[in-house]
Design brief:
The complex is a heterodimer of chains A (228) and B (255).
Chain A: H1 6-23, H2 25-46, H3 50-73, H4 78-83, H5 85-91, H6 96-125, H7 133-158, H8 165-191, H9 197-226
Helix pairs in contact in A: 1-6, 2-3, 2-6, 3-6, 3-7, 3-8, 6-7, 6-9, 7-8, 7-9, 8-9
Chain B: H1 4-12, H2 15-47, H3 61-88, H4 91-123, H5 131-152, H6 156-170, H7 173-183, H8 203-235, H9 240-254
Helix pairs in contact in B: 2-8, 3-4, 3-6, 3-8, 4-5, 4-6, 4-8, 5-6, 5-7
The chains are: A mainly alpha (228), B mainly alpha (255).
Chain lengths: 228, 255
């Protein structure tokens, strides 16, 4: 049997992951529900004063999205490792980095995209001024793939460990600090009516770097984790 | 060029030879560290003059600054050892990288603790979200993440390889810590000691600082070698050379 072409394999893997996610639509809704509940907790904890909420809205939304993605990251490779399809991917003649990149893309589409869609609602619940909304959505559109890519590398590293939930948070959150700083910085600048293209450009530069390097690192980490 | 240097380095990669070498170096490094630390503390606490602006409180730098240097230096050593361990699969390099992590984390914690003790009288606050402080805190978290990942695996070498990978990813933070005072002009003061060119610090304050720096280096060597020896005994438990050492020390104990 001749191996299929690389683009065909990537498309097949992407279609498989998206189909699997679509069959379990309830799981897609979980991160969104989580984000909604966490955001509603803030007015209860801090008091419903609109000026205060508007000032913290950008940061709260980013931290909430980061935590929601963190919770969903554990399921990125776990099912494939459990049912053995990860071994098949590693044995496949196509480059593992590309196949892993497709899995990360599918994960981003099913987890981060619904979060990005819901964030304008969350932000307006916190009285974020509408003028800052484009900055928020753009910053999220650049920051969430970065988080997915970074997170995927670390999930791959913990794939061979028995328990990894809390450990993943300990490893991922320090590395996410720059992403949160730039993304929230862009929203804060937009809120103050200042130009906000510089932090967005930094996020874009980071994303470009991560798209190139993270799948390679992720593939290497998976080989380390599976080689036992 | 003599041939014995690379040969000796290759031989040192072997666990029994390194075990004996580390055992021979350990007491000297520890003794030197204690003597140098004593001299440096005497020089820093009694000989060096009080600062014209900060009075006596500045003396905490004799602990704080060498610890901060070590927190970055150990990460550098760890990253180098992790790289060697990942690329050439040398077991000893993995052990060195993993046993460096707790020492580095301890120095980072000392740096943060002494920095906040100094910050209270000088800046009027224990903690501020300054670039240098924050990046040093992130460094501590990265150290803890590496230690946690190493211990999460049942297989020791697999854990070491995964954690070594994390070491290399986290190495991005080291230049950020180092240059944070230059890149962001925040509360933390800039560096006053220059490797090249004259330092902005009086000589009577400089020599205890450099002596303390040498003391922390010696302490790191002693601590690392002791930890690596213990780790080698634990991980190579079934090997003949460990049994020889164990039987030998048992005989010595009887005699």
């Amino acid at each position: 049997m001749t191996p299929g072409s690389t683009p065909a394999a990537c498309a097949a893997l992407l279609r498989r992951d998206l189909t699997l996610a679509w069959r379990r639509r309830g799981d897609i809704a979980l991160p969104v529900l989580y984000a909604v509940i966490v955001v509603t907790l803030f007015p209860f904890a801090l008091g419903p004063e609109p000026a205060l909420l508007a000032r913290i809205a950008g940061g709260v939304v980013f931290v909430t999205v980061l935590l929601a993605m963190l919770l969903s990251l554990d399921g990125l490779f776990r099912p494939d490792i459990d049912d053995g399809s990860m071994e098949q991917l590693m044995l496949a003649p196509q480059p593992l980095a590309l196949l892993v990149a497709m899995k990360i893309l599918a994960h981003w589409v099913t987890t981060a995209l619904p979060l990005i869609v819901i964030t304008p609602v969350l932000a307006s619940m916190l009285h974020l001024p509408p003028a800052a909304m484009p900055a928020l959505v753009l910053a999220l559109a650049l920051a969430t793939p970065l988080l997915s890519l970074l997170g995927a590398v670390l999930v791959a590293l913990t794939a061979g460990a028995k328990r990894s939930g809390m450990l993943l948070a300990l490893m991922l959150l320090p590395l996410c600090v720059p992403v949160v700083i730039f993304a929230a910085g862009a929203v804060a600048a937009a809120q103050d009516g200042l130009p906000w293209s510089a932090p967005i450009a930094w996020l874009g530069a980071g994303l470009a770097l991560a798209i190139v390097l993270a799948p390679l690192a992720c593939a290497a980490a998976l080989r380390i984790a599976m080689d036992s | 060029m003599a041939n014995w240097v690379p040969l000796w380095l290759h031989r040192l990669g072997s666990p029994p030879i390194f075990y004996r070498f580390a055992g021979a170096v350990y007491p000297w490094a520890l003794g030197l560290a204690l003597i140098l630390a004593g001299v440096a503390l005497y020089g820093g606490l009694f000989v060096a003059p009080a600062d014209y602006q900060q009075g006596d409180a500045y003396r905490i730098i004799f602990i704080h600054v060498p610890s901060a240097w070590m927190s970055l230096f150990i990460y550098g050593v760890m990253a180098l050892a992790a790289f060697i361990g990942l690329v050439w699969r040398i077991k000893l390099a993995e052990t060195v990288a993993m046993e460096s992590a707790p020492i580095g984390a301890a120095f980072t914690a000392i740096t943060l603790a002494t920095g906040s003790l100094w910050g209270k009288p000088m800046w009027g606050t224990w903690w501020t979200w300054d670039a240098r402080l924050t990046s040093e805190l992130v460094l501590l978290f990265i150290y803890l993440g590496i230690i946690g990942l190493y211990h999460a695996f049942e297989d020791r070498r697999q854990g070491a390889r995964a954690a070594a990978f994390l070491v290399l990813i986290g190495a991005v933070n080291v230049p950020i810590v180092h240059f944070s005072v230059n890149w962001w002009n925040t509360l933390h003061q800039g560096s006053t000691i220059r490797l090249l060119g004259p330092s902005h610090i009086v000589a009577s304050m400089l020599w205890p600082l450099l002596t303390m720096m040498a003391a922390t280096k010696c302490y790191y060597i002693a601590s690392l070698f002791a930890r690596v020896r213990a780790d080698l005994i634990a991980s190579e438990g079934g090997k003949a050379w460990v049994r020889e050492i164990a039987l030998g020390s048992a005989k010595e104990g009887k005699a």
